Amino acid sequence: MKQNILMVHGGGPTAVINASLYGAVKEAQASEMIDRVYAAEYGTGGLMKEKLIDLTDVPADVLERLLTTPGSAIGTSRDQLEEAEYERMAEVCVKYNIGYILFNGGNGTMDTCGKMYRMCEKKGLDIKVMGIPKTTDNDIAVTDHSPGFASAARFMAENTKELLADVSGLAIHVAVLEASGRNAGWITAASAMAEDEDGLKPDLIYLPEVPFDEEQYIHDIEELLKTKSGIVVVASEGLKDKEGNPVVKPIFKVGRSVYFGDVSAHLANLVIQRLGYKARGEKPGLLGRASIGLRSDIDVQEAVIAGQEACRAALAGESGKMVAFRRTSDEPYVMETFLVSIDEVMMHEKTMPAEFINENGNGVTPAFKDWCRPLLGGPLSPMKVFVKGERI
After folding, report:
1. pLDDT for 322-361, tens place per residue?
2. 149-292+351-376: which CATH architecture?
């Protein structure tokens, strides 16, 4: 007997979350095992309220729009779930003859995926539950990288490059660019990719994996000011001191959702107050995960593949697993998918390994750049950067 399939988005959107939805829906629409293709409106909260969007008969040309739509086309959420909520979601799935659930999200969503899988097992329900990785922070364990990161990395590299050009042309201050990433510095590190075409790179990169030392930071700036007047610093929003405390107290926190204080402004103010030198903070924030214009083509392709493979695996009887990526070559770039037990990724954060961080803890190594470069989907935008003393 045919059953229905359900798509659920969780956590912050990315530039390619809808591409994974596209891949999964296309695969489901083509299957003779599927009757109706549903999506939960605004994630798990919508599922509990029985707010399901029927995507079964969405025309191909309309579905194609998902590939160029930022945000989450079906809505997403950061619901705090307890046992009762999982019970309720299971009830709704039975009511709507859901035989397959695909959770598309990051660490928190993979935790939800695993707990839903266990709830179905506990109740003896034959519902296949699969995870589709999604995160700009690139902090999901086991997989080489996650859909969403490559586009965020390209955005960061492009924006850093433009900021470098600005500071080069008016070299009168320290500019501190803040990058997203709660505990993992992957996006912050991607700023180093600005160097590839034009040679200019951030002067300092501070990652959350390295305890932030205010005195060392001021010393680093002082040393740079001896030889240059315009400095670009890239810092993670999740910087912590050696005791593990955020360098700027979070505004508030609900579960895993942390609203950080303004790290870029704090670091800029330190320069002003302690060195008496001009400084300013810059904070792209949500723009880094919403940019379609600067997304990576590789990211789009892999996001579609992740959705397709998750759907195929569920239809083949797999459950309690997540689609992951394994890199077999950097040049040429070759990636393959495999399935990993959801237990291996539930709430396990992947941070930057030591070999990707420079000896001084204020930059990245060539090994990181070699790893990151293929994900950007090609060279960054061409730009002629004016360097003092050089003729145009």
Report:
1. 999 999 999 999 999 999 999 999 979 999 999 999 999 9
2. 3-Layer(aba) Sandwich (3.40)
Return d(Cα 274, Cα 305) in angstroms, integer.
51
Assess whether the region 3-135+293-344 and the region 149-292+351-376 belong to the same CATH fold.
Answer: yes
Residue tagged 């205010």 (tokens): 214
| Cα distance between residue 112 and residue 115, in whole Å | 5
Residue 284's φ and ψ, nearest 5 degrees, are -60, -35
Fold of 3-135+293-344: Rossmann fold (3.40.50)
Buried-state track 273-283, b at ≥16 Cβ within 10 A, e below 16: eeeebebebbb
Whether 137 is catalytic is yes
State pTM to two decimals. Answer: 0.95
Given the residues 35, 79, 111, 137, the one annotated as active site: 137
What are the residue ranges spanned by the domains of the chain?
3-135+293-344, 149-292+351-376
Asked if 174 and 221 touch (Cβ cutoff 8 Å), the reply is yes
